[in-house]
Amino acid sequence: MLQRLFKFKGGVKPQTNKTQSVGLPIAVAPLPTRLIVPLHQSIGGTPDPLVAPGERVLKGQKIGGADGWISSAVHAPTSGTVLAVEERVAPHPSGLPTLSVIIEPDGRDEWITRTPVDYKALAPETVREMLRDAGVVGLGGAVFPSHAKLSASKTVPMEELVINGAECEPYITCDDLLMRERAEDVVRGVGLFRDLLRPKRVLIGIEDNKPEAVAAMKRAVQALGEDFAVIAVPTRYPAGGAKQLIRVLTGKEVPAAKRSTELGVQCFNVATAYTAWRAVAHGEPVISRIVTLTGNVAQPRNWEVLIGTPLAEFVALGQPKADTDGYLMGGPMMGFEMPSPDAPLVKATNCIIAGSPTLFPPKAPEMPCIRCGECAKACPHELQPFELYWFARAKNFGKTQEYSIFDCIECGCCSYVCPSRIPLVQYFRFAKSEIWAREREKNAADTAKARFEFRNLRDEREKAEKAERLAKAAAAKAAEKKAEPAPAAPAADAGIGAPAAADGGAPAAAPLDAEAVKKATIAAAIERARQQREAVQPKNTDRLTPAQQKEIAEIEARRAPLQAEQPERSAPPATDAAQEQQNQ
Amino acid sequence: MMDFTTPPYLLKTASVQRVMLQVLAALLPGIAAYIWLIGPIVLVQLAIATLAALAAEAAMLKLRDKPLGLFLGDGSAVVTAWLIALTFPPLAPWWLLVVGVLFAIVVAKHLYGGLGQNPFNPAMIAFAVCIVSFPALMSQWPALGLKTSFGEQIDIVFGLAARVDAMTGATPLDAIKTALKLGEGAVDVPALLANQDIFGNFAGRGWEWVAAGYLIGGLWLWKRGIVSWHAPLGFIGGITLLAGALWLWNPAQFAGPLFHLFSGGAMLGAFFIVTDPVSGCTTPKGKFVFGFAAGLLAYVIRVFGGYPDGVAFAVLLVNICVPLIDMYTQPPIFGMKNEK
Fold first, then answer.
1. Which residues contact A394 (CB under 8 A, 6 or more apart)?
2. Tell me, what's the ipTM?
3. Which residue in the set A9, A334, A384 is minimally distant from B7, CB to CB?
4. Do A328 and B4 touch (CB under 8 A)?
5. Which ranges of chain B does DSSP label H, i.e. alpha helix?
6. CA A439 → CA A373, A405, A433, A442, A535, distances in Å?
7. Which of B74, B331, B335 sits opposite A367 (nearest CB)?
8. For A19-355, which CATH superfamily applies?
9. Does the distance separating the beta carbons of B70 and A255 come in below 8 Å?
10. Does the N terminus or the C terminus of chain B have fewer Cβ atoms within 10 A?
11. What is the three-class DSSP state of A174?
């Protein structure tokens, strides 16, 4: 079958540095002395801990349960004792702590009872729940819960299922080795996804610098009698970005604002397909993954590592050279420095690169942007990074959004090509987080404001009601009093409203009580008027010139005596004032 | 210590300095032809401009408290200096060049914020300021028929010998314009072009090869990916369109597009001036529009205006429109090509 390939714009071709770590087969890493398993390892909610310190756990036992649909379970990677459930440093650039389950392995590596199932006999919904409870998440690096991606759009028919074996980041070879050595289980996992999504075609994209993986996958597809297309795609970073691979294989461009299923396409990483198959057909939850250990080490290769293995114990396997001065998690384009040797390896850890000054020399100093446009040429999302940089630098965040900052996938191509050595991605992350922070702040402020206004309204209403009640009571009292000496004067019991009070001077009887009624009624009317006035308060008075402010002060001063005289007429002048303001 | 703060950790070997050095290298074929035409005085003028530019740059960086080594070495001041030296008359007095360079570096570049911040092309600012302030000196181009020795040229440039009017002549562009004006319809362009003292195969004698040198250098820059084709093609297209249309309409009164492309600053402008990333447009479509507008204006100014050439004023005028052009030519982003 001849597959037509499409191109995506931009992209770069850094040295791939992949050959170093593909010489040896995948090895199983020895059991570490401690396992630190963070509960929050995927996009979405943080699973609730299901174990307590002191408890014995078995290999594959669920220790964190998904707390919602976009969440994924976490399991004990081996049998042992839970030492603690506490905050530990996370494998994240911030180095902030995250709630983790610390397990001391007992060395017996004792499994829970594994129950393989025939997924074809189960309802799709049950299979999705199984995957969630087995902790199957996107192992390409995004760690999005896979079960949540396995429902086709209700309106758009599913056309293509894209399987991502591109692995475009330099240095990383874990998917390459996985496809070489375990192609059949990968293909079976793809079959599982296919059966859940029912697409018309299944396209497996692998960069053409991995001919062995392409061959192995083709063999596996043939051996299992599937009709999946295994396609070698041109090697160009970031061809392994989900959107780029979808573009290359299907010609479809998924905009930032849309889900790929809305265009009838969905994308999964090969390792995700593999773990999904192991979970369903072998009852093995995701407790380990393949990690490339490469860079400045004596023995670069791929390891199957238990989730939660501390970085220091893992890197010792590769014998880091003496001048190693840090470790990157992920690739050199999008990865980050591990904050501490105690930070654990997690589901998102596809690669650890030992760094040295020769491997990653210090960057030349940043120069001003000369608007050469190299970044725009390199941007796979066809953005104008230098414009975004300009606006982000000026903290003009509205403009950054106009120039589609949220379409940026932070692939680093712009920074890679920049002749001025500007850390563009850093600027974009800064702008994005500022926008998020402001949005949060604004939402919080809006809620607080609404709450505050409601409370004021309620207070005032209560005050007004109280005043009216007082007025009524006073009127009733007056009527009562009057009824005794002069039962022939019933006029006052009409005295709730202002009219009665206004012409209250007519009946000559009981002037003292009438005065009290009048006062209470006036108080109530003033209160009502004040509320009305506030309701029509002009809104455009935030930024007034001193001259305008002075004018307003004068108007207010003129109005004050009027209001004192005719409280019930105070609302219309306020409206006039608002009108006046607008006319200026 | 490995710089871990900012991914990506791999960077392409690119720098502002490399870009600028390649621009300078691309100027060499044109400079070689220029020296062949005028003499080694061109090198003296380049040296004067370079020294003045570096001194001005250093002084401004010092005043602005910027790292000297980093910015002096970026090569941007040298590019400006060379462009000024190549657009000024080769026998202009040394101080005129210095005035131009100082204005370009101090006012047009640093007062606007230095590298990357100038809205106007500094070299074109220098040209415009000097031609407005010293119109006579800026119009004295060496008469090609009269060979002057290097020593005489030096004397003229450094004011040791009196400036002799006989030594200077009109540029080919000026020659045509003046002749047409004086002739009042009695002279026609083909007859003028037949004068082999001034005119060569398709443009000014000798000058056409200097322009060809810039064309070669420019094509090399395009091949290296330093400049895109948009602005040069737009510029050449603008001149060709207008020159071609008028030439077809009245070949007796208007020279053809080839003449205009290889005369004055057209080729230098096409590849080295309208391609300036800092003061030019940034979007592909915008670059084309920028070049095209500059080409049209350059033709209008050089043919109908009062100055011998129009590239400088054309570029400066279009520089003003850059933000607007960029705004209206933003390309659609990934996934949004079918959206309105």
1. none
2. 0.89
3. A334
4. yes
5. 16-38, 41-63, 68-72, 76-87, 94-102, 122-133, 135-138, 150-157, 172-183, 189-193, 207-223, 230-249, 257-261, 266-268, 284-304, 311-328
6. 31, 15, 10, 5, 27
7. B74
8. NADH-ubiquinone oxidoreductase 51kDa subunit (3.40.50.11540)
9. no
10. C
11. helix
Residue whose C-alpha is closest to residue A310's, from A28, A26, A37: A37
The residue extents of the domains of chain A are 19-355, 374-422, 545-584
With a CB-CB cutoff of 8 Å, which residues 545-574 of chain A face chain B? none
Residue A357 touches partner B, C-beta closer than 8 Å: yes
Q: Is B72 near chain A, with CB under 8 Å?
A: no
Shortest distance, CA B66 to any CA of chain A (angstroms): 11
Domains in chain B: boundaries: 17-169, 189-326
Q: Kindly give the confidence (pLDDT) of every residue in chain A, 584 residues in length, as a single tens digit, with 9 standing for 90 and above.
A: 557 899 999 999 999 999 999 999 999 999 999 999 999 999 998 999 999 999 999 999 999 999 888 999 999 999 999 999 999 999 998 889 999 999 999 999 999 999 999 999 999 999 999 999 999 999 998 899 999 999 888 899 999 999 999 999 999 999 999 999 999 999 999 999 999 999 999 999 999 999 999 999 999 999 999 999 999 999 999 999 999 999 999 999 999 888 999 999 999 999 999 999 999 999 999 999 999 999 999 999 999 999 999 999 999 999 999 999 999 999 999 999 999 999 999 999 999 999 999 999 888 889 999 999 999 999 999 999 999 999 999 999 999 999 999 999 999 999 999 999 999 999 999 999 999 999 999 999 999 999 999 999 999 999 999 999 999 998 888 888 777 665 544 444 444 444 444 444 444 455 567 777 888 888 888 888 888 776 665 555 556 677 777 787 888 788 777 666 554 444 444 444 444 444 44
Of A335, A387, A419, which has the smallest distance from its Cβ to B15's Cβ?
A: A419
8-state DSSP, B167 = G
CB contact set of A155 (below 8 Å; sequence gap of 6+): none
Q: Residues 305-344, chain A: which have Cβ within 8 Å of B?
A: 325-326, 328, 332-337
Q: Rounded to a whole number, what is the distance in Å from the CA of B54 to chain A's nearest CA?
A: 18
Taking the C-alpha atoms of residue B185 and residue B197, their distance in angstroms, rounded to an integer, is 22
Q: Count the Cβ atoms, other than its own, within 10 Å of residue A301.
A: 20
Of A12, A362, A373, Cβ closest to residue B282: A373
